[in-house]
Amino acid sequence: MNVKKGFTIIEVTIVGAFAALLVIIFFLQKANVDAMNRDDDRKTAINAMYYALEEYYYPKYGYYPSEINEDVLPVIDPQLFTDPFGANVGTETSTYSYEPANCNTANECQDFILRANLEKEDTYIKRGRK
Known about the structure:
Blueprint: H1 9-61, E1 96-103, E2 109-116, E3 124-127
Antiparallel strand pairs: 1-2, 2-3
């Protein structure tokens, strides 16, 4: 009796298709998790900017600045002004924006809005307390 050992083409094809499906699912989920982590980083940065403006800048000067950067808010990590893709707050490609409001001619503002465009959620917004 002649018995051949091994797998048939059909068995190998099914196992290969199943492995490919698992790899596709893994990379799709990894992309979702990465996007959620970037969103969390954006929220952390916006919160840090917000509290620096409210707890440091406004009490010290009595108004909000017309723009923000590491020179204006030296109390937070300068890397927080850069979004996860490397664009600085206020630049055209940044997912962060700072919008001063009710500013006088000396660029002293009475209000502001901080925004972060998120990938998996709606835009994250923090408004001045005043």
